[in-house]
Amino acid sequence: MTTARPAELDAMRRAVELSRAALGTTSPNPPVGAVVLDADGVVAGEGWTRPPGGPHAEVVALQSAGPRARGGTAVVTLEPCRHTGRTGPCTRALLDAGVARVVVACADRTAEAAGGADALRAAGVDVVPDVLADEVAHGPLEAWLTSRRTGRPFVTWKFAATLDGRSAAADGTSRWITGGTARADVHRLRAEADAVVAGVGTVLADDPLLTTRPDPGHQPLRVVVDSTGRTPLTARALSGERPAVVAVRDDVPPGTYPDQLPLPGDDRGRVDLLALLQALADREVVSVLLEGGPTLAGAFVERGLVDRVVGYVAPALLGAGPAALADAGAGTISEIHRLRLDDVARTGDDVRLTLRPRNGGA
């Protein structure tokens, strides 16, 4: 079996870095990174996927490489597509450029795009699959790959809490538990997501804008989950040219909000969260950042609909006040939602924990 060369492994890691620039801008397309090496194994071009209608990563990298691509190698985080959508097939662009070898991390198993590697092999190109596949699958492609497997958006639950797990003080004040570095990191998460979701309790308590600052040139879709329609029309989340989607039960009078999303209720009279995610998928949302509050987060966790947890823990103690997570359906220790700790990082004076469910969604 053909294996990747050292320069190709380095190029794949660089392609992953490049793909981060595409997060939040490409849906429903995947955020792909690509590096083109010339015939001597020297980097000749780089690129990442542009917003829908723009070129894919391979095309951008090939344009950057120019004639140096001929006889060279294309290193791509996702199998090149072979279909014509808003743009032409990447397999055709690679063949036209005369590349001799294509190194791929993850296979594309979607019905419309799959088979790119086979098409390249049939044309005489040496294709090396599954290079750093696990590493790449847990990078910027994670949300897209998960959404294609599950049929719903990838959900990241973000919370900020004191060391004793409090998200606010006993009087309800919560600004600011964490420091400026952690808050800036949250805006990075927002910029990388297709949609930011908050509950009506958070809207009534904090009146957040739910936007990304500074403006990266695109803003995630804002979504307020409000079963009975309590969100005031003066809420800041409803301001601007693109007001928040307000997800309500389907018995709330139509036309209550500028962008109202009626959904069935669950057995507790709340908005059915799986129906919400499926409706967001219909709007080409691939990744969701769940921002709060604790009641909504608990409902997502109880349903097993959280794929990643990012917690910002401040070196502070309150001793009273609401917890970061409300009832999540674990009435006994045998029902506990166990997570796998994947990363610990300092964010200023705070600590950021990145975790994933041990078995499926949390």
Helix/strand layout:
Blueprint: H1 6-19, E1 33-37, E2 43-48, H2 57-65, E3 73-78, H3 90-97, E4 101-106, H4 116-122, E5 126-128, H5 133-137, H6 142-150, E6 154-162, H7 180-192, E7 195-199, H8 200-206, E8 221-225, E9 245-249, E10 260-263, H9 273-282, E11 287-292, H10 294-302, E12 308-314, E13 339-347, E14 350-357
Parallel strand pairs: 3-4, 4-5, 6-11, 6-12, 7-8, 7-11, 8-9, 9-10
Antiparallel strand pairs: 1-2, 1-3, 12-14, 13-14
Helix pairs in contact: 3-4
Labels describing this entry:
362 residues, alpha/beta, Cytidine Deaminase, domain 2, Dihydrofolate Reductase, subunit A, 2 domains, 9-stranded mixed beta sheet, 5-stranded mixed beta sheet, 10 helices, elongated
Residue share in β-strands = 15-25%
Low-confidence stretches: none
Q: Span between N and C termini?
A: 38 Å
Secondary structure category: alpha/beta
CATH superfamily of the largest domain: Dihydrofolate Reductase, subunit A
Proportion of residues in helical segments: 25-40%
Largest sheet: 9 strands, mixed
**How do the strands of the widest beta sheet line up side by side?**
10-9-8-7-11-6-12-14-13
Number of strands: 14
Average pLDDT across residues? 93
What does this 3D model show about the protein?
It is a single chain. The protein is an alpha/beta fold and 362 residues long. It has 2 domains: 6-142, 3-Layer(aba) Sandwich (Cytidine Deaminase, domain 2), CATH 3.40.140; 151-357, Dihydrofolate Reductase, subunit A, CATH 3.40.430.10. Helices cover 25% and strands 23% of the residues. A 9-stranded mixed sheet has the order 10-9-8-7-11-6-12-14-13, with helices on both faces. The protein has a 5-stranded mixed sheet with strand order 2-1-3-4-5, with helices on both faces. Strand 4 (101-106), helix 4 (116-122) and strand 5 (126-128) form a beta-alpha-beta unit. Helix 3 packs parallel to helix 4 (116-122). The protein starts with 5 loop residues before the first helix and ends in a 5-residue tail after the last strand.
